[in-house]
Amino acid sequence: MMLRLSMLGMIGLMFLSQTGGTAVSASKSDQIDIHLRSRVPSTDQPGAWRLIIRPEEWKPSETAVVICDMWDRHWCASASARVAELAGPMNEIVSMARSRGILIVHSPSECMSAYKDHPARKNAIAVTAGTVPDYLGKWNSRLDKEADWPVDQSDGGCDCATPCKQGNPWRKQIDAIFIDPKDIISDDGIQIGRLFEQRGIRHVIVMGVHTNMCVVGRPFGARNLARWGKDVVIMRDMTDTMYNPKMSPQVNHFTGTSVVLEHIEKYICPTIASTDLTGKPPFRFAADIRPKIVFVTAEHEYRADQRLPEFARLLENHYDLACDFAAGRAQSSGTGIHRIENLQTLADADLCVIAVRRRALPEDQMKIIREYLNSGKGIIGIRTASHAFNAKQDVPSPDGARDSSGKPILLSQWLKFDEEVLGCKYTGHYDKGPEGTKISLSPAAKTHPILAGLKTDGFVSPSWLYTNDLDPEITPLLIGTVEGKKPEPVAWTYGYKGGRVFYTSLGHWDDWKIDPFRAMMIRAVFWTMNKPIPPVTPEAGTQGN
Ligand SMILES: [Zn+2]
């Protein structure tokens, strides 16, 4: 028995090394590990949303990719250029999907005549029988539950310096995406639906353009597939919008895509990243030069899965930054809590914001965090980050793996993360006084870029005051006081391996309503990335500076 287990362990290790450390184990290599990102209504705060990333395993034989409208040309020159840039990476992802056994459906709408003799077109036409809902034959411009559309695309979405003339110049799919004779070519929702029924397709990955139009609205698009009950997702980095930054909400073109994806994740279907097939960080367009922040959340006490996505929206819309998320379950116990999904996105991040509490992680996940921190890039720790990777006890690997001597393999912890990275040793907290914690500025705050000139003398935080043994090298910025106790720094800067570190033991969900706190966090984002700190404006929901 022991021998068999250790052999399996070795095979698993070999497989891991061959796949570059992606989370695929040998015994499950016929399944695809999918990480579905969605936004769910908060039960704590009406009107608020939580961001969750849910892992699932999909059988390739029950999965299809639908490539929407990746045409050879578009009436908008910018849109055409972005499709051309996207097509190469998309072709690589599609061929990976095909080689895993996923069905590939090419859907360049209104271009079927270009393929009348193509075997992949004949595969589609051969399917004539099958009962599917009539609505698969029609556009779907809105699901009943959808809120108002979040971007104004009434101008058609051209963002060229000289507006392009609208038309229908497309003739076929762009050549960079290879069509295998075993694939399907169809732009007919009924035909595609029948084919899915015939092939037993349960999961559909939609990619292509444009996120805010055809990807969701076409007869074979995400809305209809969701309505039909298919497990549909949009690959969020293999898409683009027709969105002009001159139109509402007047944000960067790529932030426009992010705004649309957030709406989709709330009301239509989850999204996934190409990372699930490639193991690499998500694709980014060359023109998307926004600095990238990755929020890593895994805690259940302070609603980090709500407050940090809200903060991310503020940073994207008002400060021209790009935000992505890695997330674990917002629970203190239960299966699957000692994992954080989508950490691969840290590889090209400029800043990592950590709001994690008492997690042990699989070694490959902890390695990604260590590699990021070794790179000398910025880090912000929030509240429970001081005990982020201290689970207080050994946590055996959930797959029951054992080492060669038969002992359970333990998940990885980083007990001195607080001392090494944040400059403190977490020792506990005081009880919350009736008036909360009084926050004042330290002498150093008056000249430090994160707080200098901020119009505040301090504020009251509703949260407990954390206590820490501090490294003398920290620069304290905010001091917290509860009556009868020794004052404690609650925000400071530090350094780790050349990277700038900002930590605050504040971060209760109600702290995010306090203008000076939010202003401090915005400034800390830029300071830790070693970038000029922009004016923190009233439009961004703060009191200004
Ligand atoms: Zn244009």
Any chance you could write out the topology, listing elements then pairs?
Blueprint: H1 2-18, E1 32-41, E2 49-58, E3 63-68, H2 77-99, E4 103-107, H3 119-125, E5 184-185, H4 189-199, E6 203-209, H5 214-217, H6 222-227, E7 231-240, H7 253-267, E8 271-272, H8 275-278, E9 292-298, H9 304-319, E10 322-327, E11 351-356, H10 363-374, E12 378-382, H11 417-422, E13 424-429, E14 437-441, E15 458-461, E16 466-470, E17 475-481, E18 488-496, E19 499-504, H12 515-528
Zinc ion is lined by residues 76-78, 158, 160, 164.
Write a compact overview of the structure shown.
The chain is of the alpha/beta class. Helix content is 25%, strand content 22%. Strands 10-9-11-12-19-18-17-14-15 form a 9-stranded mixed sheet, with helices on both faces.
What would your notes on this structure say?
Mean pLDDT is 93; it is low at 1-27. The strands form 4 sheets. The chain has a 9-stranded mixed beta sheet, sandwiched between helices. The protein has a 6-stranded parallel beta sheet with strand order 5-4-3-6-7-8. It has a domain at 59-284: Isochorismatase-like (Rossmann fold, 3-Layer(aba) Sandwich). The termini are far apart. The chain is built from 12 helices and 19 strands. Helices cover 25% and strands 22% of the residues. The longest helix has 23 residues, at 77-99. The structure holds zinc ion. Zinc ion binds at residues 76-78, 158, 160, 164.
